[in-house]
Amino acid sequence: MSKKFTLYMVRHGQTYFNIYNKLQGWSNSPLTEKGIQNAVDTGDKLANVKFAAAYCSDTTRAMDTIQIILDKNRASSIEKANPSMHFREEFYGYFEGTDMDQAWYLAGAPHGLPTFKDIVAKYSIGKAKDLLKEADPFHQAENNDEYWQRVDAGIELIKQNPDISDGDNVLLVSHGNTLLSLVERYGNGQYDISERPDNGSLTKLEINGDEAKITAYNKK
Question: Which residue ranges make up each domain of the chain?
């Protein structure tokens, strides 16, 4: 029998690479003081929400964020989240740590699309992934298919958790582009995907068997 549950998806707190406008897919930079405060604020907002399970990307910025949120939660008995590489940000390959605008320029400019927003406006976030892999001299960045194989496996991992029952809430701390990608796929065009989700913001994904839909995006 399929279960219906709500995934409370939070973007990690602000990091130093966020300030410097660098791509930090699988690379890492620490939370800033503001980033820790992002997590504290989100933890306060979610303190009385009962979670049946908690997951996060296995990057320190996601693990540090979710630990602060779980420590503040009064309604659940979860002490630690389940970290998994399935919930990591897109892997940017050669462009890891590169200035964000420069990387997307190199991906899109050969196609007359000099910014990430230009690529998404003409095509999609998925196409942006394909173009970045194409521009990567090592071709190691994830393309759209590779990316979704990994993230879909993560969603499947959550669905198979026997501790999650019908009507439960599940906490997930992930990343900006990953949340955008999920909103593009499951938002039915109702949300502005030209706007990146804020650090510490909340996006909700309702999962019902094989169906999924976004019910809130980038809530502060």
Answer: 4-92+143-219
Closest CA to 189 of 209, 210, 217, 208: 217
Give the up-direction half-sphere exposure of residue 91: CA atoms within 13 A in the CB hemisphere: 17
pLDDT, tens only, 74-101:
999 999 999 999 999 999 999 999 999 9
Reported as a single tens digit per residue, the pLDDT across 187-196 is: 999 999 988 9
Q: What is the pLDDT of residue 22?
A: 98
Q: Give the C-alpha separation, 186 to 215, whole Å.
A: 9
Say whether 208 sits in a helix, a strand or coil. strand
Give 97-134 as a DSSP string. TSBHHHHHHHHHGGGT--SHHHHHHHS-HHHHHHHHHH
Listed in order, strand segments (DSSP E) in 19-168 are: 53-57, 82-84
In terms of Cα–Cα distance, which of 54, 66, 138, 55 is closest to 96?
Answer: 138
The helix (run of H) or strand (run of E) holding residue 202 is strand 202-208
Instruction: Indicate the Cα dihedral angle 5, 206, 128, 219, nearest 10°.
Output: -110
pTM of the shown model: 0.97
Average pLDDT value for the chain: 97
Answer whether CATH 3.40.50.1240 is correct for domain 4-92+143-219: yes
Residue 118 phi/psi, 5-degree rounding, is: -65, -45
Rounded distance between C-alpha atoms, residue 181 and residue 142, angstroms: 13
